[in-house]
Specification:
Length: 692
């Protein structure tokens, strides 16, 4: 018999709808029930493509005896971390503070008031490697609740007080917060250099995650300063990731992370946010260097997102699962992606199988499990017979498509769709792929039609074209605004700029404290044991720095000092964090590079459809100047920001043609150099020549 989760829309919650556990969704009613029964709450947080979430579900939550014990002694609450990132953030902070580590599934025991008192992540069904079994944990917590209630209350109160003391505030004394200066950005670069893996690329050791936001910072730092070291770290990391098992050598797109330091074996789930961020990184690397490999990977990743993640409504699904049926009825991680020599021979025949094994690193011993290998490329580019290799790749891809496919979490998350809109719009513009711009436009339209209400508030998720129950958090507003601004630069549709302004107004009025610090939830959001507030990047940009970057770009488009000042105050936290933890402040560092450079404002004026306008517009989009913004439209004689020509975006006002020809104006803070009609001169002014 299905439990309460059968009425939910989250694919992750629906995965647990037939468990014998009497699950509740996160709701006041669940905590009321715990108070009525005088039992603790078991909070279990995960997401649909999480491998270890599936493992714990199979071992424990589908086990009748475990479920019977849970139902008798607990109120069990299941949360999709992607749908309720606020709940996840608050309790993950408690888990990490108490244990020094975190992860999913996250397992937390709470009082009926929502106060945590015991923590963990995955618990096995039997004692293993020093870990207690899940049943032992359940029995121990029940005994503590029954016999040592005062101790439980004391621990819970101490944890809540500790979390409350972690709020970030600038205070009202001393100098106003300021964005990082060149010396702080230089210190961040030095710290990254120390953590850089010169052998394999990337930063730190295993497991190794794609450092998307840091790579954006390094590209911008190189553009501003000419630092060759910054560019070399980007090229080495992007090259290693593209050659390794992290990248799907047949179908394009990136897995979540590598379990080893050499990018050989991935954790196989594919997330929308990783692929959107990395698509943009590789496109920007091509823009800076003209790298053919960067171009190929950017386009293949964009095509993967459109082919594999796009929903019938035009949004982009959250993820593909790591696990799939291996053909025997057994669900196994990576089964869809890995190959044995025998499987190569079955598809390709002996001669081509030998070539494929050598080219893709498939060995008899295997690089993964049970003699299977993850496909990866050799360290040197350019096979002797590129045509034959491409034929092999196509045949393997066709054969793989007949395998049981990984499950897809088809809910649309607003923030991640915003990142996809930005990546696809820019990639489509750079490489003359209007279909990618159209996909970005459709996703943006879906966000407006389904996620955005008449008051400018965002829903966090949607599924099948219906908004989910969770309110948008700060990253949703920042990333969707970023997507709208990127799409505006590409298409010139002024309503995208207006929509970004609507979202950023909510950021300023609902998420921003008086001292300029930011919260992850709105001031009228559901009250948890603490209002979450985290300026550091994780798998995607933090809401704090995403909002700061979007505020800065919007100010550059509109000349708004209010938005500029808010961005600078928000970036004050990066000043403190940059020299110490640059790996976790990459997006803020990238925004700081833009602030130092201006950012440059490029206005392209000319008749729509005029080839000369199109050439200037494309040249402007290829600007490597950090965070440069681009506006394109018909010429306007009205120079006032609030003049009669109110329909014309501010950056285009007062920008006439140059002797009757389309022209480009390069400005900082709305102070412009002399206009030019020469694309080559414009390229020199904004650093756009390399990508061409």
């Amino acid at each position: 018999m299905a439990n309460r989760l059968a009425r939910e829309t989250s694919p992750y919650l629906l995965q647990h709808a037939d468990n014998p556990v009497d699950w509740w969704p996160w709701s006041p009613q669940a905590f009321d029930e715990a108070r009525r029964r005088d039992v603790p709450v078991l909070l279990s947080v995960g997401y649909s493509s999480c491998h270890w979430c599936h493992v714990m579900a199979e071992e424990s939550f589908e086990d009748g005896a475990t479920a019977e014990y849970l139902n008798a002694h607990y109120v069990s609450v299941k949360v999709d971390r992607e749908e309720r990132p606020d709940v996840d953030a608050v309790y993950m902070e408690a888990v990490q503070a108490a244990t020094g580590q975190g992860g999913w599934p996250m397992t937390v025991f709470l009082t009926p008031e929502g106060e945590p008192f015991y923590f963990g992540t995955y618990f096995p069904p039997g004692p293993r490697h020093g870990m207690p079994s899940f049943r032992q944990v359940l029995e121990g917590v029940r005994a503590a609740w029954a016999d040592r209630r005062e101790e439980v209350a004391e621990v819970a109160g101490r944890i809540v007080a500790d979390l409350a003391g972690r709020s970030i505030g600038y205070g009202d004394g001393g100098d106003a917060p300021r964005p990082p200066r060149p010396e702080e950005l230089g210190a961040a670069l030095l710290a990254l250099t120390r953590e850089f893996d010169a052998r394999h690329g990337g930063f730190g050791g295993a497991p190794k995650f794609p450092p998307s936001m840091v790579l954006e910072f390094l590209l911008r730092h190189h553009a501003r300063t000419g630092s060759e070291g910054a560019l070399q770290m980007v090229e080495a990391t992007c090259g290693a990731m593209a050659r390794g098992g992290l990248y799907d050598q047949l179908g394009g797109g990136f897995a979540r992370y590598s379990v080893d330091a050499a990018w050989t074996v991935p954790h196989f789930e594919k997330m929308l946010y990783d692929n959107a961020l990395l698509c943009r990184v590789y496109a920007h690397l091509w823009r800076a260097t003209g790298s053919e490999r960067a171009r190929r990977v950017a386009l293949e990743t964009a095509d993967f997102m459109v082919r594999e993640l796009r929903t019938p409504q035009g949004a982009f699904a959250s993820a593909l699962d790591a696990d799939s049926d291996d053909g025997t009825g057994r669900h196994r991680e990576g089964a869809y992606y890995v190959w044995t020599p025998a499987e190569l021979r079955e598809v390709l025949g002996d001669q081509d199988a030998e070539l494929a094994a050598a080219h893709f690193g498939v060995t008899g011993e295997g690089t993964f499990e049970e003699g299977a290998s993850v496909l990866r490329l050799p360290d040197t580019d350019g096979p002797a017979d590129a045509g034959r290799i491409e034929s092999v790749r196509r045949r393997l891809l066709d054969a793989r498509s007949a395998r049981p496919r990984p499950g897809r979490d088809d809910k649309a998350v607003a923030a991640w769709n915003g990142l996809a809109v930005a990546a696809l719009a820019e990639t489509g513009a750079y490489f003359d792929r209007p279909d990618l711009v159209e996909a970005a436009t459709a996703a943006a339209d879906l966000l407006v039609a389904v996620h955005l209400d008449t008051g400018g508030r965002l829903a966090r998720t949607s599924r099948d074209g219906v908004a989910g129950p969770g309110a948008g958090v700060l990253e949703d507003y920042g990333d969707v605004a970023e997507g709208f601004l990127a799409l505006y630069s590409v298409t010139g549709e002024s309503r995208r700029l207006e929509l970004a302004g609507t979202l950023l107004e909510i950021v300023l009025t609902r998420f921003t404290a008086a001292d300029g610090t930011l919260y992850d939830t709105a001031d009228d959001a559901e009250r948890l044991i603490r209002r979450p507030q985290d300026p550091t990047d994780n798998a995607a940009p933090s809401g704090w720095t995403a909002a700061a970057a979007a505020l800065l770009s919007y100010a550059a488009h509109t000349g708004s000092s209010r938005h500029r000042e808010a961005a600078e105050r928000a970036l004050g936290v990066v000043t403190a964090l940059a020299p110490r933890v640059p790996r976790f402040t990459g997006w803020g560092l990238a925004a700081a590079e833009a602030a130092l450079d201006g950012p440059r404002e490029i206005a392209v004026v000319g008749p729509a459809g005029d080839p000369a306008t199109a050439v200037l517009h494309r040249t402007a989009l290829l600007a490597t100047a950090p965070g440069a913004v681009v506006a394109v439209g018909e010429p306007s004689a009205d120079a006032s920001a609030d003049g009669a020509d109110g329909e014309t975006p501010a950056l285009l006002r007062g920008r006439p043609l140059l002797e009757g020809r389309p022209a480009a104006y390069v400005c900082r803070h709305f102070v412009c150099d002399a206009p030019t009609a020469d694309p080559e001169r414009l390229a020199r002014m904004v650093g756009a020549s390399a990508g061409e």
